[in-house]
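Study the following:
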Amino acid sequence: MVRLSSLGGLAGIAVVALGACSDSTSPTTATLTGVSPAPAATAVAPSTTITLTFGQPMMAGMEQYMDLHQGGVAGPTVPMSCAWNTDGTVLTCTPINPLAAGTQYTIHVGGGMTDAQGHMMDMDNWTTMGGQWATGGMMGGTHAGQPIGMMGSGWMHGSYYGMLFTFTTTGSGSATLTAVSPAPAATAVATSTTITLTLGQPMMAGMEQYMDLHQGGVAGSTMPMSCAWNTDRTVLTCTPTNPLPAGTQFTIHVGAGMTDAQGHMMDMDNWTTMGGQWATGGMMGGTHAGQPIGMMGPGWMDGTHYGMLFTFTTA
C-alpha cells in the first residue's frame, strides 16, 4: 500500500510538471498583423499617421526600429513622435509636420523588433503583406545620414536591413500657381496697383526673391517694391514704392526657383494656359536687373528658360 501510494504521488507530480512546462499557445516569433497606410497605397492624406499592429505585446523601446523615409529608404528620415497602446500591440507614429503632397514615402521596420517574451520578428512572410527586403544597395551606403555600418545589428535580419513598405500621398508633387494679379494681358490697370501671386500651397521663406516687376519687357528696368506674405504663405503681395507710370506696359517676372514649404519646385508647364510666356535668353537682352544673365543663378531657371512672364498695361 505504501508503494502504490508513492507511485500515485509521483504520477501526480509528473502530471503537474508536464502541465507547467507546456504552453502550446506561446509563439516562438513576434508577428506583424497590420501596416497603415496599407502597403503601396496611393492618395494617402498628408496628415496620416503610421501604424504597425503586432500579434503580441512588444518589448519597450521597439519604436527605435521603425523609421519613415521621404522617397526610398536612402531618403531623409521624417521626424515623428511615436506611442504604444496600453497592451503594447499597436505602435502609432505621428509625423511632426504634414507630409509632402504627391510624394512617395517608405516605412522601414528593423529586424530587431522584439516582443515582450524576447521573441524576434519573423519577417519571412512580410513580403506577402506587400513588404520588400531592404538591401545594402538600396540603402545608398547610409541610413538617416549615418553609414549603414553604424546602424547596429538590431536592424538586421540575416543579410537584409529590415523590411520596407511604401505609400504615396495625395496631391501634386510640385508647387502650383493658381492666380496672378493684375490679370495677364490686362489693360487700364490702376497706377496704384499691387502685384499678387497666389500659390496652391504654403511657400518656403524667401521666395519673394524670385519675383520682379519690369517696366516694359523683361529686359527693362526693375521697379522697387516691398513684398509680404499672408499668414499661411500662400499669397505674395508686392507694392511698388511709387505709383506706376500711366499708359505703360509692365512685366511680372517669376523665377522657377519658387519652392514650396515641402521643397517642391514650381511646375511652370501649364502657366502658358494662364497667359504666361517663357522668358528666353534672347528676350533678356543679356541682362537682368542691370546684371549679366549669367549672374542670375539657377533659382531663376526652368530648363533652358529664365522663368515665366506676365504682362499688363496701366491706364
